[in-house]
From TrEMBL:
Organism (species): Sinanodonta woodiana (Chinese pond mussel)
Coiled-coil regions listed in the entry: none
Listed name of the protein: Ig-like domain-containing protein
Keyword Ribosomal protein belongs to the record: no
Keyword flag Membrane: yes
Record's keyword terms, sorted: Cell membrane, Disulfide bond, Glycoprotein, Immunoglobulin domain, Membrane, Repeat
Domain of life per record: Eukaryota
Listed GO CC annotations: plasma membrane
Record Pfam families: I-set, Ig_3
Subcellular localization(s) per the UniProt record: Cell membrane
PANTHER family, per database record: BASIGIN RELATED (PTHR10075), FASCICLIN-2 (PTHR10075:SF100)
UniProt signal peptide: none
């Protein structure tokens, strides 16, 4: 039959660790070696699935010991002597002796420990599963199979877990289902950010967090709860709007709207807090990074012409080529004020200017940028596929053309299978005069895709050819 010895540890902070010991005749305490038959439940009680004569231990007492490791102090519980009657062991199928509660919750990020102890003789084995899924890779089995641990609990770990006790006395399953709920302290989904805006503009502060249970939100203005604020900039003022608990908005702002704004999202497990600043400015536009004096780009490429500005309200940026306002699908004015031109054509060449305007000053004009558009680089003489016998020479030729102003920058280089060919390989000869690549003393390993790259520093053109090296029956083996 089974036996339970109770333990009521004293109050302790931090919580004491509990273990069971046997008191020897000389007063020394010896720790019990737990196994499937004799173990301790999570609440500190000693559980014996089936008592045997050896549990009498010659009348030595069992006692629980509580230890506060921080204070380095121990406390000993009442002594228990197990008196065993009878001589034969009754064989019993597995049955539930003690389990963790049927419903529990754990915080996301914490470690989960649940336990099932089954009575019976012989001592039952315990098996674990997740009813509505699979055990995560963070699980481990402890206490001789009786305890399931899951580290760093996630929301996906929520669900029914089942322990099963089984011994040789019966094929009937003895199971216990434990439902695990996972809750979490709030974490940010969208945290409020500092806002620096111009007069007449708007500013919205968004405060969204997730957590289980769902967080409650509290707003503060300069540290005062929103419901207690008496500031005329807030109370009864059309400049202030609160459409829901997750955001507040200020519209048509004036210079006196500078303040700290706080948002707190909390549930029973904790909170997140954000403290941000609203600043309203009145500044005329300034061009802080003008376009460069000159840019060169090859046709078909994308070019970005810099024009970074400051000012509040944010300046409106316009771009001109000569005296013509720039519009069209290929032209994009970035948030930074810079101009991006995609798929550049020769007709895009010219003088570019940016202008910045707001309510305090109009048409602040940058210095000029000359955009030079060069004709694209082309392959004129394409390399041809080659097939050679190992040991013989393989030669590729390739040439190209580019804009007349960039001819002096034209360079031909080569790659094999996507990797640049090194001039240190003495079998690879690059002839700059005739733009050729010669591979001498070819071996099977030289087979591959050879790519000619014609570049002028602005753009490039590529053409590929295949070299196939066939074996030579008369060649020596080192050609391979």
């Amino acid at each position: 039959m089974a036996l339970t010895l109770n333990c009521v540890p004293p109050l302790s902070y931090p919580k004491a660790d509990v273990n069971w010991v046997v008191k020897e005749t000389n007063g020394q305490l010896t720790a019990i070696n737990y196994d499937r038959r004799m173990s301790m439940d999570i609440e500190g009680r000693l559980r014996i699935t089936n008592v045997i004569p050896a549990d009498h231990r010659d009348g030595k007492a069992y006692t629980c010991m509580a230890r506060n490791n921080f204070m380095r102090e121990n406390a000993i519980g009442p002594e228990n002597v197990i008196e065993v009657t009878g001589t034969s062991e009754l064989r019993l199928p597995a049955y539930e002796l003690w389990t963790s509660p049927s419903n529990q919750f754990f915080l996301a990020g914490s470690d989960m420990k649940i336990k099932c102890i089954f009575g019976g003789n012989p001592a039952p084995k315990v098996y674990w599963s997740k009813v509505d899924g699979t055990l995560p890779d963070r699980f481990s089995i402890k206490s001789f199979g009786q305890e399931l641990w899951i580290t760093n609990v996630q929301l996906s770990d929520q669900g029914n877990y089942e322990c099963e006790g089984l011994n040789l006395e019966s094929t009937q399953r003895t199971t216990k289902s434990i439902y695990i709920s996972v809750e979490s302290a709030p974490i940010w989904v969208k945290e409020p950010k500092d806002a620096e805006v111009g007069t007449g503009e708007s500013a919205t502060f968004i405060c969204i967090a997730t957590g289980i249970p769902a967080p409650a939100y509290s707003w503060y203005i300069d540290g005062i709860p929103l419901q207690d604020v008496r500031d005329p900039r807030i109370v009864g003022n059309q400049h202030f709007q609160k459409s829901n608990n997750n955001n507040i908005t200020f519209v048509n702002l004036t210079l006196d709207y500078h303040m700290n704004i706080q948002c707190n999202a909390s549930n029973k497990h904790g909170y997140v807090f954000s403290d941000v600043y609203l600043n309203v400015l009145a500044e005329a536009p300034t061009i802080i990074e003008p376009p460069p004096p000159m840019l060169k780009v090859a046709e078909g490429k994308t070019v970005n012409i810099t024009c970074k500005t400051s000012g509040k309200p944010d300046p409106l940026i316009t771009w001109y080529r000569g005296s013509s306002l720039i519009t069209g699908d290929r032209y994009t004015i970035q948030d930074s004020g810079s101009l991006t031109i995609e798929n550049v054509v020769l007709a895009d060449a010219g003088i570019y200017l940016c202008q910045a305007s707001n309510m305090y000053k109009s048409n602040v004009t940058s210095t000029a940028c000359e955009l030079q558009v060069k004709r694209r680089t082309r392959i004129e003489n394409f390399p041809m596929d080659l097939e050679v016998i190992a040991g013989n020479e393989g030669k590729f030729t390739c040439s190209g053309s580019t804009d007349t102003d960039e001819v002096g920058n034209l360079v031909v280089s080569w790659e094999k299978d996507g990797k640049k060919i090194s001039t240190e390989d003495q079998r690879m000869l690059l002839n700059v005069t005739e733009n050729s690549l010669t591979i001498s003393g070819t071996i099977i390993h030289d087979s591959g895709v050879y790519t000619c790259i014609v570049s002028n520093g602005l753009d490039e053109a590529r053409a590929a050819a295949i070299l196939t090296v066939r074996g030579n029956n008369n060649a020596k083996s080192n050609l391979l």
